[in-house]
């Protein structure tokens, strides 16, 4: 059994997609990031960066003590190695998948995240910041679109590289992107959206989705006003 510390963000969806694709037994431990659950001592013991997702695997492959892990890319790699699924075993295929996993973690996710923040959540509209991150998101969509001219999926066969990227393309409208401008990316997006495991993963997160269109002042402080001191230490 795997305990998944989760909230329905793109990084959270990555892990539920993998778990649903492979049929690993898991249970969701919700971490309400708007309420500050990520700062609770019991969660920080698992995820010292006070970010979700994180997992605790109670049955690791080596048969030893439970494994606690944070960072979505590291979790995907761990689960792929645990199961031997959705990550090529031969050298070149493995490296191709891993480089695109790290591309998402270091590029697509952070840039799209800043796009979301300045375009949707920032209290003041800053045209330079909005344009900067919208343009960079557009550039990254183009990189992915060109790569998908080579194969149906990001790294050849369907893999953790696709699972990492897909949730960050789901909010493409909020990112100011039109998938019609990226026909190969659109084809890839629709094929993944149609996978039953992906539908199940998003259904698993539905009970935790926000029902309000905007954040309260307290939620904004928790989400966007973090410093080295936790909220309870300020």
Describe the 3D structure:
There is one protein chain. This protein is an alpha+beta fold and 234 residues long. It has two domains: 2-85 and 199-233, Glutaredoxin; 91-194, Glutathione S-transferase Yfyf (Class Pi), Chain A, domain 2 (Up-down Bundle), CATH 1.20.1050. Helices cover 51% and strands 8% of the residues. The protein has nine helices and four strands. The chain has helices spanning 10-22, 41-44, 72-83, 91-121, 127-147, 160-169, 183-193, 196-205, 217-224; strands at residues 2-6, 26-30, 54-57, 67-70. A four-stranded mixed beta sheet has the order 2-1-3-4, with helices on one face. Helix 1 links the parallel strand 1 (2-6) and strand 2 (26-30). It is globular and about 50 Å long. The model has no long low-confidence stretch (mean pLDDT 94).
Structural descriptors:
2 domains, Glutathione S-transferase Yfyf (Class Pi), Chain A, domain 2, single chain, 4 strands, 51% helix, Glutaredoxin, 234 residues, four-stranded mixed beta sheet
Brief summary of the model shown:
This protein has 234 residues and is an alpha+beta fold. The protein has helices at 10-22, 41-44, 72-83, 91-121, 127-147, 160-169, 183-193, 196-205, 217-224, and strands spanning 2-6, 26-30, 54-57, 67-70.
Strand-and-helix sequence, N→C? EHEHEEHHHHHHH
Give a short account of the largest sheet.
4 strands, mixed
Mean pLDDT: 94
The name of the CATH topology of the largest domain is Glutaredoxin
Low-confidence stretches: none
Tally of individual domains: 2
Q: CATH superfamily name of the largest domain?
A: Glutaredoxin
How many strands?
Answer: 4
Measured between the Cα atoms of the first and last residue, the distance is 37 Å
Judging from the principal axes of the Cα atoms, what is the shape?
globular
- The level of helicity is 40-55%
In spatial order, strands of the major sheet run 2-1-3-4
Protein structure class: alpha+beta
Q: How much strand content do the residues show?
A: 5-15%
Q: What's the architecture of the largest domain, going by CATH?
A: 3-Layer(aba) Sandwich
């Amino acid at each position: 059994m795997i305990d998944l510390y989760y909230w329905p963000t793109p990084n959270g969806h990555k892990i539920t997609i993998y778990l649903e694709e492979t049929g690993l037994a898991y249970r969701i431990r919700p971490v309400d990031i708007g309420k500050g659950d990520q700062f609770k001592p019991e969660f920080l013991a698992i995820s010292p960066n006070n970010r979700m997702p994180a997992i605790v695997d109670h049955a690791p492959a080596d048969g030893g003590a439970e494994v606690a892990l944070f960072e979505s890319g590291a979790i995907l790699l761990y689960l792929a190695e645990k199961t031997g699924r959705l990550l090529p075993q031969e050298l070149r295929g493995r490296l191709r998948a891993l480089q695109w996993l790290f591309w998402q973690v270091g590029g697509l996710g952070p840039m799209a995240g800043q796009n979301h923040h300045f375009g949707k959540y920032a209290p003041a509209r800053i045209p330079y910041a909005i344009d900067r991150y919208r343009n960079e998101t557009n550039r990254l969509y183009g990189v992915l679109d060109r790569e998908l001219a080579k194969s149906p999926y990001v790294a050849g066969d369907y893999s953790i590289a696709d699972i990492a990227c897909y949730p960050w393309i789901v909010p493409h409208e909020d990112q100011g992107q039109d998938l019609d401008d990226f026909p190969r990316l659109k084809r890839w997006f629709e094929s993944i959206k149609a996978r039953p495991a992906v539908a199940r993963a998003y259904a698993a997160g539905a009970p935790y989705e926000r029902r309000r269109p905007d954040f309260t002042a307290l939620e904004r402080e928790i989400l966007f006003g973090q410093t080295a001191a936790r909220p309870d230490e300020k």
